[in-house]
Structure formats: structure tokens, C-alpha cells
Specification:
alpha+beta; eight-stranded antiparallel sheet; six-stranded antiparallel sheet; 13 helices; 32 strands; binds guanosine-5'-diphosphate; binds magnesium ion
């Protein structure tokens, strides 16, 4: 292939605006996927993606398109997730492309992540092609949305194709615009190899597979390659592309996007963002790679079966292969034993990693309540980072505590301005600005404690705006506040995994709610269990779990064996998720009880 006939592009959009559906249509139009193999959101191949209807992982596909100019082009399409927690996936996809198709829902208009993704594309110097989708909907307002794109983003939208990704209407126009407007790659095929590793995964048989964009030079089977950041050297055993089926090739040309396997057994040798070059004729410098993202929330992950501790480490290492935003280090909890403190970009990210560990690696987990990172300033003038509330130094040593603040951008129809402002006020927010996107929609800017956003902000925002508001946020710094550690005691013992850091003014209310919730979640046992919330050793709330009186099986009158079996099975099912904390059996949900209580 001649580089002039290659186009590399991503599809970016706010969640649910139709990226994956557009990718489906493009695969169909280009005959990449036969009709009988077609299914909706084909590229969302992970089980979890299909169940939840969201894209979590980026996906790269090679396709051939015969354009109206009579020439055949080689396109690489990278589908990306839209949720704020997966921005990291998006930024990695974009670094492998020259253009981005920006999909905007004709009925919804620009949302918070539409803007966030545009900024990412601009950071990567990409050509941005706006496309207005879902024009088949009766509520579609394509002209208004065009206006928004021009006014808010500042991109000309006159030429934007008006499409229905669902029916396929005008999708071909999108392909024609990609050919005409997205620049072809311009690497030097004879230069020393520079391949950007934008993703990787672990294959049990072939080791680590690196997904690459060839920026300079080309790579063949048998070539000796070096990962520039880690210095690891290997011989290329296999390479190829996805269509989306895996197709093996003998060579990856300059400008192409594909995969490389080299029997790499050590996951540490491959870092996403690294540059692959030749071992013998190396490039002078690596490509610029990616910005390191720091986790926003932390939680403890503990295997229910403590024998699975090493398996859990292994699973985390493999997941980290293509997710550098996932952090972890070993920690021990008095209540839960040996586990890992893990850092995530947000709650959805945390949830997804947890589920992937359980499904893909078969390890049942207990997750502790998520926490942000606090700065504890001590009386001796030093400062410690606290990502685990139970590790907060003793109050007598603390001068003051600072918490992370974010700048939040909330886009919504104007009729919800009132409820949104009330919510932000209740979450200790500071009003900053309000910008009208058009006559009916606004962008409201608040500064809020990240801890409150992690808590239940997003759910509350969705419910007070009937799902119409969208949220994006970025960390802006730390601010001091009246923060205290609240401990939870079960049967008079502090359960370290249930400690949280709360604002003093909210402590009493939250302590009471947690005690009530735990009372509901923890099954009755042979003895009465007091549940207490305490600050600095002083009890501020209490509820009691009454002792068990009846034997459940007594109800079965001995005769009905199958019913008895069922009951026992049900109890076992419940037990699976239990962890003994001292003398008390505590279910998984209890550790999340400190979140969203009302
Ligand atoms: P993504 O989150 O951006 O990948 O969005 P999806 O492609 O998963 O689409 C989200 C929802 O919008 C799905 O239920 C699609 O069926 C629907 N959808 C996508 N494109 C269209 C369209 O052109 N018209 C209509 N009516 N619905 C669409
Ligand atoms: Mg999708």
C-alpha cells in the first residue's frame, strides 16, 4: 500500500450518541463484515460491554473502501469509549490517528463529553469532522445542533453530514469526507522503525500482544525489535491487523495500524505509550508517548478466598498492561487480610475492573468503599498523602486536612438550573459561572469536592434532571476543610475497611445512616451485634442487629428434601460473598454501604 491511500481515524462522541452504531454501518458499507456475521455494536466484543451497552476498550479495525474517485483506500477505524472514566482510552486511540469523526446526537446536542473529547482531539492535532447523527428521530434538530457546534466548539458545521447511523442514511458521506479531509500518514518508510504502542493484551499462548501504529519505517516477521522505554528485545514472530477478525501479515507498512506478537512472557516489558524500534538500527528518539494520568479514587480489593492473593496480583498486572491509569500496591487490613490498594480514574472504572477480575480471572472479591486522596498536614510541618482513611495519622498529630477539588462542567436544559444549583450547594460546591449554549441549554460551572462527586453526585444529578444533564470534571487542586475520620465498630471492634473521611457537619447524619444501612445488610447471627459510628473514639450513632431466634430449616417440616436443599443452596450462595470480620459475618454490600445511602 501507498501511504497516500491510508486514512487513520477515531470516532469520538458523548456516551450514547452513536459511535459504535456508526462503526457498525461503516463495517457493513465497506463489506468488512458479511451480513450474516453482523450484530449490533459489533466492536463491543467484551462480555461486559455487551451487557451494559457501553464501550470500555478501544478497538482498531482495518477496512478497504472504494471511494467515489475510483480509488481504493485502506482505512483504520478506532472506536472509543465515551464515559469520563475512560478518557485515557480515548487519548491513546487519538495518538494513533490523523483524524477524528465527532458524532453529535441531533436530539441531544453537545454534551459535556463532546467538548472534553474535542479538546483531546485538538491536543493531538487531529482534523475533526463533525457528523450529526440520529436525524431519523422526530425530536432531531439538526440546524440547532449545527449552530451549537459552530458557537460552542468553533468548528464549521455547514458541511457536516446529517446521518442516521441506525438506518445507514448518508453514512457514505462520512467516508467520503474522511478520504478528502483527513490527512494521509506521512512517515518515511525507509527510516528506522518507530511504532507507537497504543494498547496491549495478554494472550495465554502467545504472550503479550502489542497494538501499534507504525509512525516511521516498517516491520516484518523475523525483525529484532526493542521496546525503547524498557530496553526489552525480542524477535517478531507474528504480526497482522484486525478486520475485525485477526488477519496475519508478513509486514506492517509505514502508516498502518496492527498488532505484533513476539512470545513476550513478561508483562513488565511492554508499556502502553512506549515506542518499538529495531534492536540493531534503533531510532534516535522514542515518540512522545502519553501523559501519565493519576488515579482519582482508591479502594481496597481483597480476595474472598485468601489463597487467591497471588492470582489477584497476576490479574491486576495483566489488566494494567493496557490500562496505565490502574494503580495498585499491596496492603493489609485487620478486617480483610491481605489485598491491594487500587487506584482508579472514577467509580465506573473501578466497577469495571472489579467485574473483569471476577469474570475473566475467576476471583471473588471484597471491595472497600472508595476514597479520594487527602493531604494530611501534621503538627511537625510535614504532609502525608492518605488514600486509605484507616491510615490517617492520629488526630493529636494532625494540624489540618485538605481535600481534592474539581472544576465541574454540567450541561443541561435550562429548566433544571434550579435543582442542579441546589444539588451543588448541598454538596459543598462553589458557583463559578453559567454559559448559555443556546436558548434552551446551559453549561453550569461549579467547584466541588471530589469526595462528594465520588459519593453519589452523578446519580443525584441524573435523577434531579431526569437524565438530561451531563457531567465532566477535572482536578484543580486542594483546599482545607473541616474533615474528620469516622470509624465504624461491629461488636465493639473498629472495622478498618469501613472507616471514611467526612466533613464534620455531615458526620452525624452519615454515621446514623451507615449504622442503619449496615443493620439491614448484615444478617442476624446467634448473638446481638451493636453497630456504632465513632469520631475520635466518641460514639455518635448506634443501631443493633438482634440475635437470630428461629432456625430457618425448622420451617421445612423435615419431609420436603428438595426445598431444604434449595434453602441450603441459597444460604451458600449468600455465604460466598461473606467475609468473617472478627466474629461477625459481613456481606460484600456492607463495605459499599458508606456510599449513596438515601
Ligand atoms: P455509543 O455509546 O456512542 O457507542 O452509542 P451506541 O452506538 O451504543 O448507540 C447508543 C444508542 O443509540 C443505541 O441504542 C443505538 O441503537 C442508538 N442509535 C445510534 N444511532 C442511531 C440513529 O441514527 N438513530 C436512532 N434512532 N438511534 C440510534
Ligand atoms: Mg460505544
Amino acid at each position: 500500500v501507498d501511504q497516500k491511500h491510508i486514512r487513520n481515524f477515531s470516532i469520538i462522541a458523548h456516551i450514547d450518541h452513536g459511535k459504535s452504531t456508526l462503526a457498525d454501518r461503516i463495517l457493513e458499507i465497506t463489506d468488512t463484515v458479511q451480513n450474516r456475521e453482523m450484530k449490533e455494536q459489533l466492536l463491543d466484543s467484551m462480555e461486559l460491554e455487551r451487557e451494559r451497552g457501553i464501550t470500555i476498550k478501544l478497538n482498531a479495525v482495518q477496512l478497504n473502501y472504494r471511494a467515489k474517485d475510483g480509488e481504493t483506500y485502506l482505512l483504520h477505524l478506532i472506536d472509543t469509549p465515551g464515559h469520563v472514566d475512560f478518557t485515557y482510552e480515548v487519548s491513546r486511540s487519538l495518538a494513533a490517528c490523523e483524524g477524528a469523526v465527532l458524532v453529535v446526537d441531533a436530539a441531544q446536542g453537545i454534551e459535556a463529553q463532546t467538548l472534553a473529547n474535542v479538546y483531546l482531539a485538538l491536543d493531538n492535532d487531529l482534523e475533526i469532522l463533525p457528523v450529526i447523527n440520529k436525524i431519523d428521530l422526530p425530536s432531531a434538530q439538526p440546524d440547532l445542533v449545527k449552530q451549537e457546534i459552530e458557537n460552542v466548539i468553533g468548528l464549521p458545521a455547514d458541511e457536516a453530514p446529517l446521518i442516521s447511523a441506525k438506518s445507514g442514511l448518508h453514512v457514505e458521506d462520512v467516508l467520503e469526507q474522511i478520504i478528502k479531509q483527513v490527512p494521509a500518514p506521512h512517515g518515511d518508510a525507509s527510516a528506522p522503525l518507530q511504532a507507537l504502542v497504543f494498547d496491549s493484551l495478554y494472550d495465554a499462548y502467545r504472550g503479550v500482544i502489542a497494538y501499534v501504529r507504525i509512525k516511521e519505517g516498517e516491520v516484518k516477521i523475523g525483525d529484532k525489535i526493542r521496546f525503547m522505554a524498557t530496553g526489552a528485545e525480542y524477535e517478531v514472530l507474528e504480526l497482522g491487523v484486525h478486520t475485525p477478525k485477526e488477519v496475519k501479515k508478513n509486514i506492517l507498512h509505514c502508516g498502518e495500524v496492527g498488532w505484533i506478537a513476539a512470545s513476550i512472557k513478561s508483562v513488565k516489558d511492554v508499556r502502553v505509550g512506549d515506542t518499538i524500534t529495531f534492536a540493531e538500527r534503533p531510532a534516535a528518539e522514542p515518540l512522545s508517548g502519553y501523559r501519565q494520568l493519576n488515579p482519582m479514587v482508591y479502594c481496597g480489593l481483597y480476595p474472598i478466598d485468601s489463597a487467591k492473593y497471588n492470582d489477584l496480583r497476576d490479574a491486576l498486572e495483566k489488566l494494567q498492561l493496557n490500562d496505565a491509569s490502574l494503580h495498585f500496591e499491596a496492603e493489609t487490613s485487620q478486617a480483610l487480610g491481605f489485598g491491594f490498594r487500587c487506584g482508579f480514574l472514577g467509580l465506573l472504572h473501578m466497577d469495571v475492573i472489579q467485574e473483569r477480575i471476577e469474570r475473566e480471572y475467576n476471583i471473588d472479591l471484597i471491595a472497600t468503599a472508595p476514597s479520594v486522596v487527602y493531604h494530611a498536614y501534621l503538627t511537625d510541618g510535614s504532609m502525608t498523602l492518605v488514600d486509605n482513611p484507616s491510615m490517617l495519622p492520629d488526630v493529636s498529630k494532625i494540624d489540618h486536612i485538605e481535600e481534592p477539588f474539581v472544576k465541574a462542567s454540567i450541561m443541561s436544559p435550562t429548566e433544571y438550573i434550579g435543582p442542579i444549583m441546589e444539588l451543588c450547594q448541598n454538596k459543598r460546591g462553589f458557583y463559578k459561572d453559567m454559559v448559555y449554549l443556546d436558548d434552551t441549554r446551559v453549561n453550569i460551572i461549579y467547584e466541588l469536592p471530589l469526595g462528594e462527586i465520588v459519593y453519589d453526585f452523578f446519580d443525584k444529578l441524573k435523577s434531579c434532571t431526569r437524565g438530561y444533564a451531563s457531567l465532566d470534571y477535572e482536578l484543580i487542586g486542594y483546599q482545607p476543610n473541616k474533615l474528620v475520620k469516622m470509624d465504624i465498630l461491629l461488636n465493639s471492634d473498629i472495622v478498618d475497611a469501613l472507616s471514611t473521611i467526612v466533613h464534620r457537619d455531615f458526620a452525624y447524619h452519615r454515621g446514623k445512616a451507615i449504622c442503619e444501612k449496615l443493620k439491614k445488610l448484615i444478617p442476624r447471627q446467634q448473638f446481638e451485634i451493636p453497630v456504632q459510628a465513632a469520631i475520635n473514639g466518641k460514639i455518635i450513632a448506634r443501631s443493633d442487629i438482634k440475635a437470630l431466634r428461629k432456625n430457618v430449616l425448622a420451617k421445612c417440616y423435615g419431609g420436603d428434601i428438595s426445598r431444604k436443599k434449595k434453602l441450603l443452596e441459597k444460604q451458600k450462595e449468600g455465604k460466598k460473598r461473606m467475609k468473617s470480620v472478627g466474629s461477625v459475618e459481613v456481606p460484600q454490600e456492607a463495605f459499599m454501604a458508606v456510599l449513596s445511602m438515601d
